[in-house]
Amino acid sequence: MKVFILAAGQGKRLLPMTADRPKSLLDIGGQTMIGWQVQELMKANVVDEIVVVTGFQAESADAEVNRLQALYPDCRFKALFNPEFATADNLVSCWSVRNEMDRDFVLINGDTLFEAAIFQRLIDSAAPSPVTVTIDHKAHYDEDDMKVRLDGARLLEIGKTIPMEAVNGESIGMLMFRGEGPKLFVDALDSAKHNPQPHHRWYLSVVDDLAKTGTVGTREIQGLEWCEVDYPLDLKWARQMVSGWVQNEAGAPAQDTSAVAP
Hints:
About 30% of the residues lie in helices and about 25% in strands. The protein has helices spanning about 35-40, 60-70, 90-95, 115-125, 180-195, 205-210, 230-250; strands at about 1-5, 25-30, 30, 50-55, 75-80, 105-110, 110-115, 130-135, 145-150, 155-160, 170-175, 215-220, 225-230. It starts with a strand and ends in a 12-residue tail after the last helix. A hairpin with a 2-residue loop joins strand 2 (about 25-30) and strand 3. By secondary structure, it is α/β, with parallel strands linked by helices. The protein has a single domain (about 1-230, about 240-250), classed as Spore Coat Polysaccharide Biosynthesis Protein SpsA, Chain A, CATH 3.90.550.
């Protein structure tokens, strides 16, 4: 399985911690965010290639990718630079590596931490759609959540502006593309890139377009641990979460992390 990690952004909402490094390289419990992502991905024993899309402070990201390559020699790592990272949203990051989307793959936001069971549940989908969005549920949603509207497991709509009364969950920032999914996504990215104002669109706006064709499904991961890191408080939650992982692996009593994910 091929995996793409979008890690081009600086993370300005975490300044001054991100003044000299992208947020994907912030220390979380003794390891970078990308380091945790790769560690959890490798537990599935199916990942043979990881492409990291870099941008801000790309040299530091390149060094981290090289470190991970040495740590996981059986997996092929690539760091590919998005030259438009400072002026464009992540649709352009995806478009910049479209030629690499040549087989089934999973796409992950570089600021999403997740336990291995989430990735495993996604790739174990019994009858996956060409595009599958990993979703979770919570009692309340805010303006910044990437909300979803569903018909059963089929995605009808994804975006931040869905009316609260129509919201059925939120995307956690992990998607799988299988079968015709990679080509559908690449074609949609290419079309969007040549339309007006592509620099101000998220790649999930393209997935929203695809949802209208009935080709996008969802996979629920309720009860499993994940965290999106955008703000300093998110960083605190993330560190608490990975501390629980470390204790569990060491055989120590686990901390209560039921309130970790915002």
